[in-house]
Amino acid sequence: MLAASFNKKPNKPIQEFIYPYNVGDLLRPTFFCPFDMERIGKLGDGGKWVCGMSRLEAQSHGPSSDANPDATLVVYSFGVEHDSSFEAALLARLNAEIWGFDYSVDGWADEVPPNSRAHFTKAAISATTDRQQSPPKLAVHDIMAANGHDFIHIMKMDIEGSEFEALEAFIAWAEEAGKKVLPVGQLLLELHLVTGDGRPSTVDALVKWSRGWRNLA
């Protein structure tokens, strides 16, 4: 299949041959989940594996609506780009309310039409908040404070290399606040070998991040 594609379009960059798929589509997650595992959203960069989706549905059945009597599940989606199939599936199957953030696009992709349960902010996720910058930079704990949230049921983070500094700051905030665990039910995290500005992620950044993570375990 790939060979045929290369023969048809020999002058295209490699990203265009594999898009919208990636090597992750061929693999199953290796982390421990005591419940059912299900990939939510399309193949490619938009889909994510969720642990215990059936339990979430039993707790808070969709579709998402202000009139739905089930408990609202808070979802943060950091990194939207051009595929919102993950968020669309959560809105359809759970009574979720989603807050999305991405500095590179102006809103949700076509899968999520205007919806009172899906909020979008054009901003970058960072270690610290700087609202004077354009687009602004926002820290996770500051977003939670602004929204009045003390717990996030699902946090999806795909922010192209900035995840190390953002999570390190989030972990430091949790420790300073005296929290024994991060206030997150599930963290769906995509790791990158480069930082947000294109520089290689340093070993030091990974070590600091993993050390803080272990401290909260």
UniProtKB/TrEMBL annotation:
It comes from Cladosporium halotolerans. This is Methyltransferase domain-containing protein. Pfam families: Methyltransf_22. InterPro entries: Methyltranfer_dom, METTL24. It comes from the Eukaryota. Residues 25-173 form the Methyltransferase domain. The lineage of its organism: Eukaryota, Fungi, Dikarya, Ascomycota, Pezizomycotina.
